[in-house]
Amino acid sequence: MDAVNAARVRRLAFWGIPLSIGVLGLKLLAWWVTGSVALLSDGLESIVNVVAAVIAFVVVSYAAKPADASHPFGHHKAEYFSAVIEGVLIVVAALMIVYEAAPAVFDPKLPEAPLLGLAINAVAGVINAVWASVLMRAGKALRSPALEADGHHILSDVVTSGGVLIGLALAFLTGYAVLDPLLAVLVACNILMQGSKVISRSVDGLMDRAVPEDEEAAIKAAIAAHAAGSLGVHDLKTRQGGSVIFIDFHLVVPAEMTVGAAHEICDRIEDAIRAVHATAKIAIHVEPESEEAHGVRVKLTGGRKP
User: Which of 276, 27, 39 is nearest to 167 (CA)?
Assistant: First the structure.
């Protein structure tokens, strides 16, 4: 990630802190006005949002540090730790909600001043919806797992708030007070599902999972279209580390080809790949045709095949 994009990621992460604190204040105000267990559960999740926003800011600041002797491949993977921590916090929030809601199931009470409380919570939901959209778009465009995870977490909060608004309205209109705590339990289940997804995506990154199939196909097409002069490619490997994609493969060339000519092919291929993935870090092992291949030959698609 270049300095401009790194600064943008850091700036977005920073603004997530005051916004999450403001939304938390609104949700706690809504709970204080109504006494609703469902609104309290929504507020408890927002406490997690505040903690997650602080962690995300710290981690993306660290991830933006340039490579050094101890971390020659950079610090990009630090963002995955933020996403894992956020997933764990989501699970903790769900357990806190169940702890608060379970007793109220057996002693339900209708909320007070429901219209005012719902209106306050709706404002908080709108703020979260806009911010979640910003974070998810930026996280995907800038390849920031921390921002994307934060965006998905906040989106789950938006879904939670929407469910709370509908459920409390039904409880007030029907007079069934038990709908309030039952809704809180349903909110907890939804949060658990979102948390498991965040953790799963982060673990994939930490375990050096290959890039998605569509991205790998684009890489193969770029190689195929710009490898004229070579005899083939094998042992293609990819992995994603935060905002950076790492790519390496073996390029077979005629035995009599000069080092300079082989290097020219490599430069051409690297430029083509970076046109698809600007943050790609590429390592190409050039070997003569007389060398016995010791990897899996790659079937390339798109353009002229090498």
Answer: 39
List Cα–Cα distances, 306 to 229, 233, 264, 265, in angstroms. 7, 8, 14, 11
CA-nearest of 178, 185, 32 to 110 is: 178
CATH number for 219:
3.30.70.1350
Whether residue 301 lies inside any domain: the answer is no
**Span 206-215, pLDDT tens digits:** 777 788 888 8
Determine the residue type at 269.
I
Q: Which of 93, 89, 86, 101 is nearest to 45 (CA)?
A: 93
Residues 27 and 172 in one domain: yes
Q: What is the pTM of this model?
A: 0.60
Residues with Cβ within 8 Å of residue 213, at least 6 apart in sequence: none
Range of the domain at 246: 213-288
Number of domains forming the structure of the chain: 2
Q: What pLDDT shows up at residue 304?
A: 40
Please indicate, yes or no, whether residues 168 and 273 belong to a single structural domain of this protein.
no
Residue 297 lies in a domain: no
Strands 244-253 and 232-241: antiparallel
Q: What pLDDT, in 10s, does the model give residues 133-188? A: 998 888 877 777 778 777 877 887 787 777 777 777 777 788 777 777 777 777 77
Q: Residue 143: left if φ>0, alpha if ψ -120 to 50, beta else—which one? A: left
